[in-house]
Amino acid sequence: MRPVTIAGRPIGPGYSPYVVAELSGNHNGRLDRALALLDAAKAAGADAVKLQTYTADTMTIDHHGPGFDIEGGLWHGQNLYALYQEAHTPWEWHAPLFARARDLGLAIFSTPFDSSAVDFLEALDAPAYKIASFELVDLPLIARVARVGRPVILSTGMADEAEVAAALAVLRAHGDPDLILLHCVSGYPTPAVESNLPRLRALAETFGAVVGLSDHSMGVAVPIAAVALGAALIEKHVTLARADGGPDCAVSLEPPELAQLCEGVRTA
Question: Is residue 178 within 8 Å of residue 205, measured between CB atoms?
Answer without folding.
Answer: no
